[in-house]
Amino acid sequence: MRLQEARRQLVAGNTTAAVVAEAVGYASATQFNREYRRTYGLPPGQDASLLRGRLTEARGRAD
């Protein structure tokens, strides 16, 4: 659940992985990055950027 919330925060806001890691309860940004990449296949920043792009494309098609 921490990783899902972290992903939501990364996609929703202009923040860093280190800030989000702390906000969702990780003591180590390194551990957060490792677990995030294992779960989602990409580092947090790349994943959030990709997801934001997909959301923008989906909104464009809905108009």
Mean model confidence by pLDDT = 94
Helix content: over 70%
What is the percentage of strand-forming residues?
under 5%
Report the biggest beta sheet as strand number plus sense, adding barrel if it closes.
none
Radius of gyration: 12 Å
Number of strands: 0
Gross morphology: elongated
Give the structural class: mainly alpha
* SSE run: HHHH
End-to-end C-alpha gap: 32 Å
Q: Which residue ranges are poorly predicted, with pLDDT under 50 across at least 5 consecutive positions?
A: none
What this model shows, in words?
This protein has 63 residues and is an all-alpha fold. It is built from four helices and no strands. The chain has helices at 2-12, 17-23, 29-40, 44-62. The longest helix is centred in the C-terminal third of the chain and has 19 residues, at 44-62.
Summarize this, please?
The protein is mainly alpha-helical and 63 residues long. 78% of the residues lie in helices and 0% in strands.
